[in-house]
Each structure stands twice: as structure tokens, then as C-alpha cells.
Design goal:
This protein is of the alpha+beta class. The chain is built from six helices and five strands. The two termini are about 35 Å apart. The C terminus is likely disordered.
Length: about 220
């Protein structure tokens, strides 16, 4: 678009289900074929005939011609429940400090909820290395981002695009809080600028004059 008018979607629209189903089909079959070529798939019983390359390729070609169904519907408890569910994964750590009970004899005890038994609170004790292994399963590898923005929310032109959207919708700008915007405007040369996100960092310790200040001596307050 030329950016001169706002084009609204039809009422109640959220996702193009047919587009979503074809995207899911393509990605699923691509990963399935990659797993086959890597030798990670095993076929048994009635599927043993698919172990050959030609037979497997023929079956994948058949699946690409079939319309896949992606089931999408309104959330039972409303959009707020969906945001709360996603927020537990995007803005929280794997386990909060309040759930940790004890660390003794190389074992960690913590509380967990058994949803299969009426959401009952229970205590689990694991060896420290096993606890750390499970915790690190929730840590993203280097180079991965938990949240990615695209479209008018993409980081590069977000401020300009949001201003344009508000102008086209005749919507007022939000009240300035002095938090996020100030962090985003820090110059690259600022000594207390986070090298990863660009946010404001806060000093949490002092060092002798003879020792250099390490980046780990700062805490990201953004």
C-alpha cells in the first residue's frame, strides 16, 4: 500500500486458515523429508514399504496434493487467557524462586503442580545436574530470539510505522512512560548501554580502581 489509508480486515478475522494450513503442510513435509534423508526415520509394519527412497518420495508427493486441515477457533476463556498463557513462556523464567524449596546433598527440591490430579501441588527432588539440565532446556541457544516482531512492529521502523498507523486511524498516541522509549534512544557510545538490546543498564557493584570494569558488573534494567 501507499500508506495513505488504513485497510481494515473483515470483522472477526484473525488468521487465514487456508493459508495457515498450506504453510503448515509445506513446513511439515520439508522437515519430514529432511529427516528421511538424514536417516532419522524408521518404518515398521504396514509402513515398511516406505523405507525406499522412491516409495517415500512418491508418498510425500501425494501428501503435497492433499488439502490439510488446520483447526482454528475462538479461545474458550477469551483472548486475555491466551495472552496470559503465552506470557508464561515469553516473559518468565522456567521456574520462579518461590517454587524452590531446598538445595541439600547435591539435590534440589521444588514445588510443581500435577494437572492430571486436580492441579494438586507436589514436591519433586532431583539431582542438581538433572535439575540444571531440565532448566537449560528452556534457555534459547545463542542467536535465537524468544519474540520476533514483523510488519509495522519490526524494530527497524517501528516508531515511524506506529505513528503512521495512529494517524490513519485518528488514534491518540499513548502516554509517555519514560521507560522503553528512553532506553531505545541511548546512543551507541553510551557506557551504560546494553550491547545486546540497547537498553539502560544499572550498576550493581563497585570495583577497585586497579581492576577494569567488566560488562557483567552491570544489570539490564530495561
Amino acid at each position: 500500500m501507499d500508506g495513505t489509508r488504513w485497510v481494515s480486515c473483515r470483522p472477526g478475522f484473525f488468521l487465514a486458515v487456508r493459508v495457515l494450513s498450506r504453510l503448515f503442510r509445506r513446513l511439515f513435509l520439508e522437515h519430514l523429508q529432511a529427516s528421511f534423508e538424514a536417516g532419522d526415520l524408521a518404518f515398521f509394519g504396514g509402513l515398511a514399504a516406505l523405507a525406499g527412497k522412491i516409495a517415500c518420495s512418491r508418498r510425500l508427493a501425494e501428501l503435497r496434493r492433499v488439502e490439510w486441515v488446520v483447526y482454528a477457533k475462538r479461545p474458550f476463556a477469551g483472548p486475555e487467557a491466551v495472552l496470559a498463557y503465552l506470557g508464561r513462556y515469553t516473559h518468565r523464567v522456567a521456574i520462579s524462586n518461590t517454587r524452590l524449596i531446598a538445595l541439600a546433598d547435591g539435590r534440589v527440591s521444588f514445588r510443581w503442580r500435577d494437572y492430571r490430579h486436580h492441579n494438586k501441588s507436589k514436591v519433586m527432588t532431583l539431582a542438581a545436574d538433572e535439575f540444571i539440565r531440565r532448566f537449560l532446556l528452556h534457555a534459547l541457544p545463542d542467536g535465537f530470539h524468544r519474540i520476533r516482531h514483523y510488519g509495522f512492529l519490526a524494530n527497524r521502523h517501528r516508531a515511524d510505522k506506529l505513528a503512521l498507523c495512529r494517524r490513519l486511524l485518528a488514534a491518540p498516541a499513548p502516554a509517555h512512560t519514560g521507560d522503553d522509549d528512553d532506553c531505545q534512544r541511548l546512543p551507541d557510545s553510551a557506557p551504560d548501554r546494553c550491547p545486546c538490546c540497547g537498553g539502560q543498564m544499572e550498576a550493581i557493584g563497585a570495583f577497585p580502581r586497579s581492576s577494569p570494569v567488566s560488562p557483567s558488573a552491570w544489570r539490564d534494567s530495561s
